[in-house]
Amino acid sequence: MDLGMLRQFLVVARLEHLSRAAEELRVAQPSLSRTIARLEAELGTPLFDRAGRLRLNDAGKLFRGYVERALGELDAGRRAVTESTGEGFGTVRLASETFLTLTRPLAAFKRAHPAVEIELHQLPADAMARALRHQEIDLCVASQVIAADGLAGVELLDEPVLVATPLGHRLAGRASVRIEDLADEPFVTARPGHWHRRLLDRLFAARDLTPKIVFEGDEPGAIQELISAGLGIGLNPAMAHDVSAQVPVVWLPVDSPDCRRTITLFWNPSSRLSAAARLMRTTLTEWTWGPRS
């Protein structure tokens, strides 16, 4: 088996869909199917269940872990050699659920270190933890708790999360609101797994309530626009009040001490961080976070 075969396997394992994997890899689907079949033949066992939808089986999950670690070590070695030969600071691979929070520190970093290449990976929280352990990324910034066993982290920002309502909404004149006041309101929010949605579900579940969700999506900007258009209300971090000031909504504090988000920077202490990754870590940890950071 060669590296190309292993990298293709990881894409198929992640997507569990041959046609989408072939599209991402820019190869023909029959060719990709043959590659996976050859890999399974070499290993002497199927890696996927093919009854109905393609699913990674237990053998596939076991093998994926070894492949991720092996390729992670190879990539780390390549970056170490590049750095040791004096060909620059190299590349930093940074993951986050959303990069709206990171736009300004990233711009400052690029101005200060124009020779550093930055790879950005938008991943859900659970995928970021796995990618760190397998050295697929160097750093990640999470807005929710992740499975951080074996990882190092530092808190970057703890901020309140507010409720955004359309102008003229019945709650718009209030100084603050309780979760109970929102029980019958339509919510515009993110998909399950995103920190917005997990916070919303957690706040309502703690009060034996279920949020009424009329829209769930992946674009924070679109969510804000839909709230402004009167489609519903939504939770938004205090930082978004400044970033999205041009969108006409009303911002209301929530009378709940747990209506907050904590942004944390994580890295794998067992991995050798490149000079570029160390520079990025310093930039993010020393950044003055806040609405106008």
Largest sheet: 7 strands, mixed
- Secondary structure category: alpha/beta
The low-confidence parts are none
Number of strands: 11
Oligomer: single chain
Estimated helix fraction? 40-55%
Query: Count of DSSP helices?
Result: 10
What is the general shape?
Answer: globular
Query: How much strand content do the residues show?
Result: 15-25%
Write down the overall mean pLDDT. Answer: 88
Order of helices and strands: HHHEEHEHEHEEEHEHEHEEH
Summarize the structure.
This protein is α/β, with parallel strands linked by helices and 293 residues long.
What's the structural blueprint in terms of helices and strands?
Layout: H1 3-15, H2 18-25, H3 29-43, E1 48-49, E2 55-56, H4 58-84, E3 91-96, H5 103-112, E4 117-122, H6 125-133, E5 139-142, E6 152-166, E7 186-190, H7 195-205, E8 212-217, H8 220-228, E9 234-237, H9 238-243, E10 249-252, E11 260-267, H10 275-286
Parallel strand pairs: 3-4, 3-5, 7-8
Antiparallel strand pairs: 1-2, 5-11, 6-9, 6-10, 6-11
Helix pairs in contact: 1-2, 1-3, 1-4, 5-10
